[in-house]
Write a structure and sequence with these properties.
Layout (H helix, E strand, L loop, with lengths): L1 H19 L22 H6 L4 H14 L15 H11 L6 H8 L4 H9 L4 E4 L3 H7 L8 E4 L8 H10 L7 E5 L3 H12 L5 E6 H4 L5
Parallel strand pairs: 1-2, 1-3, 3-4
Helix pairs in contact: 1-3
Bound molecules: 2-acetamido-2-deoxy-beta-D-glucopyranose.
2-acetamido-2-deoxy-beta-D-glucopyranose binds next to loops.
């Protein structure tokens, strides 16, 4: 165990040293910090940390993975890999901290997916809040996208159902729908899906979408 700890310490040192050798490319590697096992830290931490043999093995494997050459484009941690870019985007687009819990509850769309749809000039933004909320909080209506407003409640999207064919002629048009939390938008999304609209994305609340930079 003592020898193995030293091995990990050497690996970790090599890793830290390598990250100080900065080339423009691997500067981005710092956005995905490698897993450093607790057992490789100071001796006081080592004494108080219990690591099972399996955890130790996994930590060691993770460390070795993190040490793979960054120039290998097959690495998920390559600076320009899709994975790394996704992580970076998620960090940049982090919104209200409860987005992930509402995401599960109201089937909110991935931020990345929303970003893609917002770049599409065909996309229609559908606001299902009340007039009063819009007057008080403002609205999300980027100049390059069409904006629609039909108030819905958490249980009633009937006005939307009635007006949909007029407001959104094509069922393949991407629609980004939002309210205040994503709840009413979820009801609206289901109503639209039932009408055959199959590119409907729930962006959650105005607070979630207003910060999205295009
Ligand atoms: C539907 O529209 C009518 C007329 O504008 C309005 O009075 C009613 O409150 C709306 N229903 C909902 C659920 O928003």
């Amino acid at each position: 165990m003592r020898t193995s700890s030293r091995t990990i310490f050497v690996s970790t040192t090599a890793l830290l040293l390598r990250s100080t050798i900065t080339t423009p490319a691997n500067a981005f590697a710092l956005t995905t910090p490698p897993v450093i096992p607790a057992s490789s830290s100071t001796s006081s931490i080592r004494r108080t940390t219990t690591t099972t043999p399996q955890q130790y093995h996994n930590n060691r494997i993770n460390n070795l993975r993190a040490l793979r050459p960054l120039s290998s484009s097959s690495s998920p941690f390559h600076p320009f890999s899709t994975f790394t870019k996704s992580l970076f985007n998620m960090m940049m687009m982090s919104s209200s901290p409860d987005y992930s819990s509402r995401k599960a509850e109201y089937q909110l769309a991935d931020k990345e997916v929303l970003m893609e749809q917002l770049k599409n000039s065909e996309t229609i933004v559908l606001d299902v809040r009340t007039e009063a909320e819009i007057a008080a909080d403002g609205k999300f209506s980027p100049s390059h996208l069409q904006y629609r407003h039909v108030p819905c409640t958490p249980t009633d999207a009937s006005n939307l159902t009635m007006q949909a064919a007029t407001l959104i002629p094509s069922q393949t048009t991407p629609i980004i729908v939002y309210c205040k939390s994503g709840r009413r938008a979820s009801t609206a999304q289901k109503a639209l899906n039932e009408l055959g609209y199959n590119h409907v994305f729930n962006a959650g609340g105005f607070g979630d979408i207003q910060d999205m930079k295009l």
